[in-house]
Every structure is written in structure tokens, then in C-alpha cells.
Design a protein that fits this description.
The complex is a heterodimer of chains A (about 325) and B (about 160). Chain A has about 325 residues and is of the alpha+beta class. Chain A is about 30% helix and about 20% strand. The chains are: A alpha+beta (about 325), B alpha/beta (about 160). At the A-B interface, strand 7 and helix 6 of A face helix 4 of B.
């Protein structure tokens, strides 16, 4: 850590901080950091200098799912670009490899700044993805600086749609499915370039408040399988599709409580192939779901005999089913 | 010099399902050629080291060490396999061993490419028997071969 650099005097940085966040938020001590290796020591009010541009560090970002809402991600900082005042997400180099467990299965996973930097470059002009750039700090760490997307996750944004599931499905889902097809096409772009998203989750799609468009975020995760390079991406897309079609998760436990007669008809093959508490054969609960669409969902069910191996297969089925749902109101 | 072949743990008992069709004739012809007397045996052993993508490794030296460790293991396994084949009476000159290493989108694709290149009439693989869930997520090399190798070679899947 150093004090202000010749390019940016303390007075200049103070004036920019005052312009961006207000006079009362200007710290007494100006600390400029060029080596981000020890990200635990990069704190609120520090300034990180990257590509000769100063970023005013605010809070650590937090993990937002699976009951760990309060877990801080110390390597991911909210920051303000002191030149133009825009909000950024700064992802510092955090290399890790671990075995992740999904249901009963385990995965060799890794976090790779290189992968994310490469994908950011690939999707630079594609607004179906988050945007940003990568820069190397003074110690050689690959830092990614991302445009902050204001908006809600796709998952959250659909929960309030419709007065009932039938109303949602008939009047809102056609538009949601169009958005989903758009998102699948975006992942196809990655696959066509030999890349995987690696961490497809429903909270990794943000509906941009400004454009209204859904955008994929977080590309630094990867997994390693010897035979099916895209299998986990496809499985994860299936999970999102089922969630969108159902307007949330339909769990066997919920059905047993709220609709025991329906629950009695659920068979082992009707549930998600990995998450055995989630219903995939949604027609058993919502009989107005067209069969061809339900057949797509069943590819992700425990009873499935056929899986999607390539994203083109999923896309073709989605596009074939789409006309059955009518127009977007 | 001749030596007594080491006894096999598998019996040469075959069940061949036939229905009098040309397909059955082809199956019989295959077994007759493979197990009947005469003909030269040639065995190409192919060991694939599927290297994770570059992103997986933190440094180049780590990647190098990872590959070296697997190469050592592959060489040791190859020696074991060749020894066993020779013990079973197969001439040493008839056995060839190849190691292919790289970051491959699919191991099955590499096997199929080698099969095509070698012109072998039979492809033999061991299968560990994965669950449906695993097949869904990880993919199954043997199932992919089962579908893709048709027309090019007979496939033996040993569990």
C-alpha cells in the first residue's frame, strides 16, 4: 500500500471523492493500492489504482443464496470509478479449486480470473451479458472491473407476476419464455466458442433496470468433466426453465401439505434428476402446460431416458414449443 | 522358447443371440475370426490423459507437474497391461502402447479418431458403471462409443 501517486495527488483524489460521493464522505487518510494480492486488507475508503484509473472502494459484496446471505466475498468489492463516478464491481484474483457437491454428485470446480476475463472480452458488445474489462495490477493479479447492473434477479422478478399460476402461465410466461430463449441463445454463443458459463443459476441472471433485458453475470467458475463438457450448463438451464414455468420451485413437501391428492400421484420419475424434492413433471400440477413444453422439462427428470447433450437440441425444442403458448400480451 | 500362458479369470463362454438374419451371420463370422484358429493378433493399447483446461491450473509449473504425474502413472499402467497380455500368450511384438494427452472436449471422440486411424476391427473398453445422474451430468464415454462406433468396429464393453 502506498500514498497517492504522482499522477493523482491527494488533493485531486479528495476532490474526485467529494464529487462522486459527497464532501462528508472524503476520508481523512488517502490510501492508494496498486497490489491487490492481499484482498482482505483492501478496505472501505481505500483507492485501488488500475490501468492508471482510481477506484474508490466501498463494501465487500455478499453471497446471495442458499442461506448464506450474510457471507462476505472479500475478493469482490463494490467500487466507484473516480474519473466518471460510475459504480463498479471489482473482482480481485482469488484462485481456488474444490470439489463441489450437487445432490449426490461431486464436481471438480475451479475459479479462474483468466476464464472470466476471456469471456468478458468475447461478450463485450453483447448486452445479454454483464460487461466489464480486466486489468493486471502491479503484482500481476488479473482484476476484473465490471459495470454494476441495477436490477433484480430474473428469479425474483417473476414471483410477483400473475394473480394465479394459470394467469401467470397464460399471460406472462410467454414473454418470460422468450427471455429465457434469449438467455439460452446467449449461452450458445459461449458454447460455440468452446467456453462454458460454469455457474448457471437463476440468481445469476439480472434483469437490467435500465434496458429491461436479462443479463448473465459471473463467469469465473468452471468445472471439469472428461466426457460432457456442457452437461452441467445444460442441467442448470433446465433447472431455471422448470423454475420459470412453475413460477418458483414446486417441492414434493409443499404438495404434500397443500395438495395431498396431487402429491399422491407424484412418482419417483417426476422429480428433478438431482434434486429429488423438486417436481419437474409440472403437468401433474398445472395441466394447462402444453405437452411439448412439459416434454422438455422431463428431460431433466429422474425418469428421463434422453438428455440434452448440446444446447442446439434444447434450443430447437424450445423454439418448437414456443408457438403453442400464444403471443406476449 | 515357449511358456505356459497364465490362466484367465474370464471363461471363453459366449452367448450369441441369433435370428438367422444377415446380422447374425455377421456376428458369427466375427466370432469365428476372433476366436477361431489362425490369424495374427495385434493389440494397440491407447491411454488417454484428459488434461483439465488451462483455467484449472494456477501456474504453468503446476500444470506441468499434474501432467507428469499422470504420465508416470500411465506408463506404469501400460507396463502392467503389456505384462498381462504377454503372460496370456500374446506375442510382445503384437502389443503397442500409446499415450495421448491433451485437453479434449470428449474422450470418446479421441478414441473414435484413434479407432478410425488404426482401422482396428474391435474396440474394447472397461466400464465402471455410472448412475443415471452421473451420466446426465458428466456424460458417459462408453455410451457415447456405443452409439458412435456403430458401423466402424465391434465394441466390447467389459464391466
Amino acid at each position: 500500500m502506498t500514498t497517492a501517486t504522482p499522477e493523482f495527488s491527494d488533493d485531486y483524489l479528495r476532490s474526485r471523492i467529494a464529487a462522486c460521493v459527497g464532501e462528508d464522505r472524503v476520508p481523512k487518510q488517502i490510501t492508494v493500492i496498486t497490489d491487490t494480492s492481499d484482498f482482505y486488507r483492501i478496505d472501505y475508503d481505500d483507492i485501488v489504482l488500475l490501468n492508471d484509473r482510481p477506484y474508490f472502494i466501498r463494501n465487500n459484496e455478499r453471497e446471495g443464496r442458499f442461506g448464506i446471505d450474510e457471507q462476505q466475498k472479500f475478493w469482490v468489492k463494490r467500487a466507484i470509478d473516480l474519473i466518471d463516478g460510475s459504480t463498479k464491481i471489482m473482482k480481485l484474483t482469488f484462485l481456488e479449486r474444490f470439489t463441489a457437491r450437487v445432490g449426490e454428485l461431486s464436481f471438480e470446480c475451479y475459479r479462474s480470473p483468466k476464464k472470466e476475463a476471456r469471456i468478458l472480452e468475447l461478450v463485450r458488445n453483447d448486452d445479454r451479458f454483464m460487461h466489464g474489462f480486466s486489468a493486471v495490477d502491479s503484482a500481476g493479479n488479473l482484476v476484473r472491473v465490471l459495470d454494476f447492473i441495477q436490477g433484480r434477479t430474473l428469479a425474483d422478478s417473476i414471483l410477483a407476476l400473475g394473480t394465479s399460476h394459470e394467469d401467470y402461465f397464460l399471460n406472462h410466461f410467454p414473454g418470460v419464455l422468450d427471455e429465457f430463449i434469449d438467455l439460452v441463445n446467449a449461452i450458445k454463443l459461449l458454447h460455440d466458442h468452446g467456453e462454458i458459463h460454469g455457474d448457471i443459476r437463476r440468481d445469476h441472471v439480472i434483469r437490467d433496470f435500465r434496458s429491461g433485458r436479462c443479463r448473465w453475470i459471473d463467469f469465473d467458475f468452471g468445472y471439469f468433466h472428461t466426457e460432457s463438457r456442457f452437461g452441467y450448463d445444460l442441467f442448470s438451464l433446465g433447472n431455471i426453465l422448470v423454475y420459470l414455468a412453475a413460477r418458483g420451485d414446486v417441492t414434493v413437501q409443499d404438495l404434500r401439505q397443500c395438495a395431498p391428492d396431487v402429491a399422491a400421484c407424484i412418482r419417483p420419475e417426476d422429480v428433478n434428476i438431482i434434486f429429488n424434492n423438486r417436481l419437474v413433471n409440472l403437468r401433474k400440477v398445472y395441466p394447462y402446460i402444453p405437452e411439448p413444453l412439459n416434454a422438455i422439462l422431463l428431460h431433466f427428470a429422474a425418469g428421463s431416458e434422453a438428455y440434452y447433450e448440446h444446447i442446439d437440441e434444447l434450443l430447437a425444442d424450445l423454439c418448437e414449443s414456443r408457438p403453442l403458448l400464444g403471443q406476449v400480451p | 522358447m515357449t511358456s505356459e500362458a497364465t490362466p484367465c479369470s474370464f471363461r471363453k463362454d459366449l452367448l450369441i443371440a441369433v435370428d438367422g438374419s444377415e446380422n447374425s451371420d455377421r456376428a458369427i463370422e466375427y466370432v469365428a475370426c476372433m476366436l477361431g484358429g489362425g490369424g495374427q493378433v495385434s493389440i494397440s493399447l491407447l491411454h488417454i490423459i484428459s488434461v483439465p483446461p488451462d483455467d484449472y491450473f494456477h501456474t504453468e509449473s503446476e500444470q506441468k507437474a499434474w501432467i507428469e504425474e499422470r504420465e508416470k502413472a500411465a506408463i506404469a499402467a501400460g507396463e502392467r497391461h503389456i505384462r498381462r497380455l504377454i503372460e496370456a500368450g500374446i506375442p510382445e511384438t503384437a502389443v503397442h502402447y500409446t499415450i495421448r494427452k491433451g485437453t479434449f472436449p470428449s474422450v470418446a471422440e479421441v478414441i473414435l479418431a484413434e479407432l478410425k486411424k488404426s482401422g482396428a476391427s474391435t474396440l474394447v473398453i472397461g466400464r465402471r458403471g455410472i448412475s443415471k445422474k452421473e451420466e446426465f451430468i458428466y456424460g458417459s464415454t462408453s455410451n457415447r462409443l456405443l452409439h458412435a462406433a456403430k458401423g466402424s468396429a465391434a465394441l466390447w464393453v467389459v464391466e
